[in-house]
């Protein structure tokens, strides 16, 4: 048998296994072909595609880039490479890949849907909505775009768009549990809690769709809470958090965040602070204002009240202080303790970085306005903030600890190391105690301005 016949026969067998999701067998066959013909481009492409499916993203990137070098107009290679870059959180590169697909093939619905996903990640919901809607216009029965459209509308409180999306999806998928899920959520958002509860109890999701089950269960919990059935509400909140613990928690470490607090509690003490050289903030430099507090303490309500004033603008939930902390970590020796020996030249550079980051979040900057940096858990970084900005001002939102802790337990937060502490009441209470004790410690050793 000739070399070409051997390759083509093996390739046909590989494709057959690939289509049946026999990934290991298909992968072995693809490798056999590449041993015979390292430049067999169809095999390189399909091995790249298989690698995306099996989450071997490094190999997928290599194979798909090689495919594109040989076939610059291979839309599926560009699309799959975009998926890889999205997994690597290289969103600009992912966007470029999907836009390339649409340039070559404007009606490529997977690329339109994927571009919507990128804009959702970039926190540009209206652009995401537009791309999902384009995909649906081209292929009205494209369930992924319907689902993603309803998801982004729900998460960003585009209630009118959510209502239209649910109504449109229902015409194509009458008995689909995903549509039922968002119908129930929409009823809940319209305060029809009994109808929402009844709708959501008709469906459930398997373990491979845990995120949808968490959304269903947490919405049920809120419905029972609003109709006054506190026992069922608590049980459903508990179930939602247990589901999160089993799935989402794997990537996060609640103790890591507690350690961040512990380090600051041990470092920012009167005995240490009194030895520090005095730093002055220039009179002509604005004093940054921070809106801080524990999550669910009322910072969002306070934000809404403050921004109603024409000369106040609140920059919400951005990470300017995190960039400030990163600048400190880049000092010589990269040690947290460097903060006490920091030099004026370094201070000036870090202050400039902060203000540039703040201004990047502001449209049409007006020097007569007050700009407030709102991120509740910046409360744990008050020590660093005051060291860099001695004249910084703080607005602190306080709420009864019991209400705060219970509300955090009931909230379906996007998980990270901090939010991982809210999956049960004991952990939530422990974090509250740690954070607020650190705040009390800060107020006892620093002259903090503007406490409310």
TrEMBL record:
<dbReference type="Pfam" id="PF14559">
    <property type="entry name" value="TPR_19"/>
</dbReference>
<dbReference type="InterPro" id="IPR019734">
    <property type="entry name" value="TPR_rpt"/>
</dbReference>
<dbReference type="InterPro" id="IPR027417">
    <property type="entry name" value="P-loop_NTPase"/>
</dbReference>
<dbReference type="GO" id="GO:0097363">
    <property type="term" value="F:protein O-acetylglucosaminyltransferase activity"/>
</dbReference>
<dbReference type="InterPro" id="IPR011990">
    <property type="entry name" value="TPR-like_helical_dom_sf"/>
</dbReference>
<dbReference type="Pfam" id="PF00515">
    <property type="entry name" value="TPR_1"/>
</dbReference>
<dbReference type="Pfam" id="PF13469">
    <property type="entry name" value="Sulfotransfer_3"/>
</dbReference>
<protein>
    <submittedName>
        <fullName>Putative TPR domain protein</fullName>
    </submittedName>
</protein>
<dbReference type="GO" id="GO:0006493">
    <property type="term" value="P:protein O-linked glycosylation"/>
</dbReference>
<dbReference type="Pfam" id="PF13181">
    <property type="entry name" value="TPR_8"/>
</dbReference>
<dbReference type="InterPro" id="IPR037919">
    <property type="entry name" value="OGT"/>
</dbReference>
